[in-house]
């Protein structure tokens, strides 16, 4: 009985890993369950033993990392807004998490069309806009410039995706993230002076 459970768990893990690679290569819509099973070395019927369908497989791959990321970003945003955490430390924690979960992040941001997560990128964008607006409101009129905030958020997201997709080691990703943060901080404080004039 114990051997059977272990074998089932192993088969499920093989399917999750094979699914992750297939979805990364082709995106959810073009991914093939048959190809996923071939990669995992199992019959097509094995998928339906563990997952309802292709979308359930995708969901099982991204659900836990997504839950952890949402928890982490809420904690970091709150701490940064309340001044309990330097933005550089928050960025470091987020980048470490994203490096360890970069495949899942890419699935959610770039490969989720056709799933319940297809609007994930837009939702993240909207959340970042709200966070940046609240942060900028601490500095007076800056929180009123929606166009500026939208462009800054877009730049931030593009930079983050470059770090995720760039094939960097964790150390290099963290180093680059820290430098980008220094650049952003300098720009932010220059911006405050410009707006106050």
Any descriptors?
single chain, 197 residues, mainly alpha, 9 helices, 0% strand, elongated
Structure class:
mainly alpha
Strand content: under 5%
Total strand segments: 0
**How far apart, in Å, are the first and last alpha carbons?**
74 Å
Task: Determine the oligomeric state from the structure.
Answer: single chain
Q: Which whole number gives the mean pLDDT? A: 89
How would a textbook summarize the main sheet?
none
Gyration radius (Cα, Å) is 20 Å
SSE inventory with pairings:
Blueprint: H1 2-30, H2 33-40, H3 44-50, H4 54-81, H5 87-100, H6 102-110, H7 120-137, H8 146-165, H9 170-196
Helix pairs in contact: 1-2, 1-4, 1-6, 4-5, 4-6, 5-9, 7-8, 8-9
Give a verbal description of the structure.
The longest helix is centred in the first third of the chain and has 29 residues, at 2-30. This protein has helices spanning 2-30, 33-40, 44-50, 54-81, 87-100, 102-110, 120-137, 146-165, 170-196. The model has no long low-confidence stretch (mean pLDDT 89). The protein is mainly α and 197 residues long. The chain is 81% helix and 0% strand. It contains 9 helices and no strands.
Summarize the structure.
The protein is mostly helical.
């Amino acid at each position: 009985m114990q051997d059977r459970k272990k074998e089932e768990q192993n088969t499920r893990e093989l399917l999750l890993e094979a699914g992750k690679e297939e979805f990364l290569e082709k995106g959810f819509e073009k991914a093939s369950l048959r190809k996923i099973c071939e990669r995992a070395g199992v019959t097509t019927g094995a998928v339906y033993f563990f997952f309802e369908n292709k979308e359930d497989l995708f969901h099982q791959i991204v659900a836990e990392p997504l839950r952890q990321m949402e928890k982490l970003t809420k904690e970091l945003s709150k701490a940064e807004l309340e001044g309990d955490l330097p933005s550089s430390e928050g960025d470091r924690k987020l980048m470490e998490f994203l490096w360890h979960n970069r495949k899942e992040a890419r699935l959610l941001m770039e490969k989720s069309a056709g799933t319940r997560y297809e609007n994930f990128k837009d939702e993240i964008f909207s959340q970042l806009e709200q966070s940046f607006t609240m942060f900028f409101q601490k500095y007076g009129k800056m929180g009123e410039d929606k166009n500026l905030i939208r462009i800054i958020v877009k730049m931030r997201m593009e930079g983050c995706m470059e770090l995720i997709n760039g094939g960097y080691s964790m150390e290099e990703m963290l180093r680059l993230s820290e430098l980008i943060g220094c650049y952003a901080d300098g720009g932010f404080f220059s911006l405050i002076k410009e707006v106050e004039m």
